[in-house]
Amino acid sequence: MTSPDGIAAPAPFGRRDGAAAGRRISISVTLAVGIGLLVFAAVAVVLALSVAANLRNTFGLLSDKAELTVTLAESQLRSHLQPAVDQVSFVTRLIEGGRVDPSDRNAMALTMTGAMAAAPQIMGLTYVDRDFRVAGVARSPQGPIVSVSERIADPGVRHEIATSLVGQTGPFWGEVIYLDRPNTAVMNLRQAVGGGDAVDMLAASVSVRELSRFLTDMEEGIDGAVPFILYGRDRVLAHPNLAEGFPGLSHEEPLPDLFQTGDPVLAALWLQGEPAKVGTDTIDAVYVDLAGKEQIMVYREIDGFGPVPLILGVHFPVTDVNEELRRLALSGFVGLAVGLIAILAGVYMGRRIARPIIRLAEQASRIGQLEFGKVSALPGSVFTELDDQARAFNTMLAGLRWFETYVPRSLVKRLVAMQIDEGVHSVERELTVMFTDIAGFTSESEGMPAAETAAFLNAHFALLASCIEAEGGTIDKFIGDAVMAFWGAPDRQNDHADRACRAALAIAEAIRRDNGQRRAAGEPPVRLRIGIHSGAMVVGNIGAPGRMNYTIVGDAVNIGNRLEQLGKELDAAAEVSILISGATAGELGTAFAPASCGRFAVRGRHEDIEVFRLGSGLR
Fold first, then answer.
1. What is the distance between the alpha carbons of residues 351 and 36, in angstroms, rounded to a whole number?
2. What is the pTM of this model?
3. What distance in Å separates the CA atoms of residue 89 and residue 173, rounded to the nearest whole number?
4. What is residue 428's DSSP assignment?
5. Do residues 110 and 104 make contact, with C-beta atoms less than 8 angstroms apart?
6. Which of 181, 267, 467, 496 fits as disulfide partner to 432, beta carbons 3.0 to 4.6 Å?
7. What is the pLDDT of residues 250-280, one digit of tens each?
8. Euclidean distance between CA atoms 586 and 497, whole angstroms
């Protein structure tokens, strides 16, 4: 949007477009959040992968531990029973090979005694011929092996033996039975001897008490876990609590049930619902909660040791698992703490990186306000780009401080505030111009040193400039000891005549005060002439490319200069002479009281102009 004079309409200095301002974000926040999030994401991913891997490893190790324990129990079971299988097979081969005659009872007793001596876990060996005559050897409670006299099997036993041998071609395990002496349960191994419809049978009785003793030893090496072996789902074949035997067993109940072992966790095994798979398909797990004492039970079923499967397992406190999980949780918390520290470090680094940019923006804003004296040089940086930025800014600042000396700051500031995009076009506008000149300065300065002359003029111009700029005037130029200033541009000032006259009166008062000080110091007073005129003038950028001045030209400018020179005739002896044209007097408000001096001819004008003398102050 442009003004009627063709100059772009002023916009508030520093104003931002609303939509654009709404899209702006802080680079400090962006860097801090961005670096913090990147670091946190990296730490979080590593932590998540680490925790997940450790969690898998922990549960894998626990699963492996459980499977290893069960496998160890199975291995011990097989190693306990396998010698019996080997000895029964060995004796059977001797009989079937004709090397031992089963009818020779002494030879048979000697052969079976040797087999038992090689396998201490065998409690007895029995041979039953096809006529159901029974003969064998047994281990006494004191340990020696003794022969068992021949006898005829009971009819019920005959039927059970005959039935069990049907379809069997090798050693097989029968049901667990109870022996009165030595008051223990045994697993019995049988094998058919010979062939055809009528066969003999060799049987071995293996004590299960040794299994419980082995589990006792194994319990001490697996950190509080309790191993067990079940015969089917309801009877306990081996348990550390059965290592010293169990009273009350009988032929009808050769093994104690789950509730009789004194192990409440084992007793609750089948009361906890369906088991869950742990680690592998060969291990089942059950969670047991007994009055707040949480246990995990893992087990495996194996076949081939009797008419029902054996269940080998172990149970251990949940605290064993929780301890591992607590260690994992601790490592997770440590990882999160490291992540938070990393975020704080990222925020700190982001702010450190953004700080030079923020400082640059602050100093650049002061440059935009042309406050070069308040602008600080930027420090260097360890970051190459930021260090280059600081060097470039400091170089620019040094140049601008020199440039400030030769450019009217107030004018540039007002032009910048107007935000004119295409330069300042020259236009005609009603303005008021002022010229000042020191009376007799040329002759008085002839005897003054150059430095003293420059100091005097600098102090004099500073005094005048403060009065002119206080009224919003623009200092066009300094000409020797003279000053040219104007009002009404670049800002529109409808009271430009009033402003110029108030500035002139302020200058007069300042000169009088300064002269008082000069007289007191024994220095000659300064006499000043001021000429003011209002009219149409051309204002804008005028000059050659690369060297433009924002200035005013026109006949009205010359009239202001002629009025200042007219003061030599009208007020030759006055300390301060202020002459204004009739055009200026006609625009003044009622606060002023100019006195007419008459009409005078001025150089460059065909017609006389009316001249007024501005008094010492306002009404």
1. 11
2. 0.47
3. 13
4. E
5. no
6. 496
7. 888 889 998 888 888 888 887 766 655 554 5
8. 9
